[in-house]
Amino acid sequence: MTDSPARPRGRRPGRADTRGTICRAALTLFSTIGYDKVSLRAIAREADVDPALIHHYFSSKSDLFAQTVLDLPLDADRLVSDVLAGPRDQIGQAAVAAFLAAYDGPDGGRERFTAMLRSAVAEEVVQRPMSEFMSKEVFGAIAERLGHVNFKLRGQLAVSLVLGMALSRYILRLPTLTAASDQMIIEELRP
Amino acid sequence: MTDSPARPRGRRPGRADTRGTICRAALTLFSTIGYDKVSLRAIAREADVDPALIHHYFSSKSDLFAQTVLDLPLDADRLVSDVLAGPRDQIGQAAVAAFLAAYDGPDGGRERFTAMLRSAVAEEVVQRPMSEFMSKEVFGAIAERLGHVNFKLRGQLAVSLVLGMALSRYILRLPTLTAASDQMIIEELRP
DNA sequence: GTCTATACGTGGATAGAC
DNA sequence: GTCTATCCACGTATAGAC
Questions:
Q1: Does the CB of A93 have a partner CB in chain B at under 8 Å?
Q2: How many folded domains does chain A comprise?
Q3: Distance (Å, rounded) from C-alpha B155 to C-alpha B141?
Q4: What is the DSSP letter of B168?
Q5: Is A105 exposed, middle or buried (0-12, 13-18, 19+ CB in 10 A)?
Q6: Is A4 part of a structural domain of the chain?
Q7: Which of residues B27, B49, B70 is at a domain's end?
Q8: How many CB atoms lie within 10 A of CB B149?
C-alpha cells in the first residue's frame, strides 16, 4: 500500500483514486481465493473498473500482488521483543499470541497474511520471501537470542506452529478453532 | 490406487496398464505443483500418453484427482490407537510422530498428502473432506476419548500442529526442518 | 485518464478416424 | 484402445480511439 494519496482534484471523467480502489479489490480477492485463481477481470469487476486500468497502474499481475500484499505490515523487531517479553518456557504461546494480535488488527493485515499463505502453497515467488522472513527475521532472531543449541530447528518449528494455526483458522476454517477466542487458544496451547 | 492389476496380455498397439501410468504421473504432478496448476496435457506428457486417453479412463480432471489422491491411505482407527498408545501428557508429540511415520512410508502416502495439502488451500472440494477427516475421525476421536472439556478445540489444535508441520516441511521446505530427522523434531517439540 | 477491441496463448473437453 | 483434429471458454496483455 504505497498508495492512496487521497487527492480528489477537480472532477474528472471516471472516479478518482482508481489505484487505491484496485488495491483494495485485489487484496480482497487474493486473500479469499488465492493468487492464481484470481483473474484481472475479476479484480476489475470487483473494483468496478476497467480491466485495462489495472495494467495501466500495475505493469503485471505479479507486480500487483507484490504491491498489494507482499510488503509485510509486520515490524520484525517489534514482534521479536513482544515474543521475548514473557517467560521463556512459554515461547510457543507467546509467538502465537503475538501473531494473532498483529494480524487481527484493523489494518487489513490479516487479509494480507491469508493472501500470502494461500498463495505461498502454489506460487514459488511468494514462498521464498515469506518463509525467509518468518524463519530468519523473526523466529531465527528469537531462537538465536535464547542461545539454544538447536535454535534454528526451534525457530522453524515455531514457524510451523504459527503457520498451522493460521492455515487451520483462516483458510480451512476449522469450526471450533475459528469460533474460539484468541485467549482460549493460547490457554489450551500449553500442553 | 485401485489399479495396476499388472496384466500384460498379448501384445497390443500402445502400452499396457495405461491407467496405472496415468495415475502415477498425475500423483507426481499434483503433489509437486498442486491441482489447478496441473494441466491434463502435462500429465499426458509426463505419462507419455495421449491427452485424450485421460478422458477415456477418467471422466474429468476432478475425477482423476479424486481417484488418485483423495482416497486417503490412512486407517483412522489405527492412527488413533497409535496416538493414544503413549503417555497422555505428550499427545501432541505422539500425533506428529504418528503422522510422520504414516506418511513417510513407501506407499506414496506422502505424495498423496502433499497433493491434498497443496490443493486444499485453493480447492474447496478438497478442503471439506480433508479437514473433516482429520479433525473428526482422527483428532476428534482422540480428544473425545481423553474426555477433556475442550476436546473439540484440542483436537483441532492438534490438527493445526500437524498441518503446520507438513506445510513447513514438505511444501515450504524450511531448510533446517526438512533436513532434521523425525526423531529430532519430536524431541524438540516438547517445549 | 479511461475504455473498447482484440491478439495470443492455454486450458478442459469431444467427435470420430484408425 | 489409441490418437488426430478441433471446439470453446477464459487467461494475460496490448494497441489505440475517446
A1: no
A2: 2
A3: 8
A4: I
A5: exposed
A6: no
A7: B70
A8: 8
Same domain, A58 and A85: no
Using the C1' atom of nucleotide C2, identify the protein residue whose alpha carbon is closest.
A14
* CA A20 and chain centroid, separation: 18
d(CA A95, CA B181): 24
Distance separating alpha carbons of residues A120 and A131, to the nearest angstrom: 9
Nucleotides of D under 7 A from a protein CB: 1-5, 10-16
Contacts of B188 (CB under 8 A, 6+ apart): A150, A153, A154, A157
Q: What is the CATH number of the domain that holds B138?
A: 1.10.357
Cβ-based neighbour number of residue A50 at 10 Å: 12
pLDDT in tens, chain A (191 residues): 433 343 333 334 556 688 889 999 999 999 988 888 899 999 999 999 999 999 999 989 988 988 888 765 566 778 888 888 877 777 777 888 887 777 766 666 788 888 888 888 777 767 777 777 777 777 778 878 877 777 888 888 888 888 899 888 888 888 888 998 888 888 887 65
Gap from A52 CA to D17 C1', Å: 14
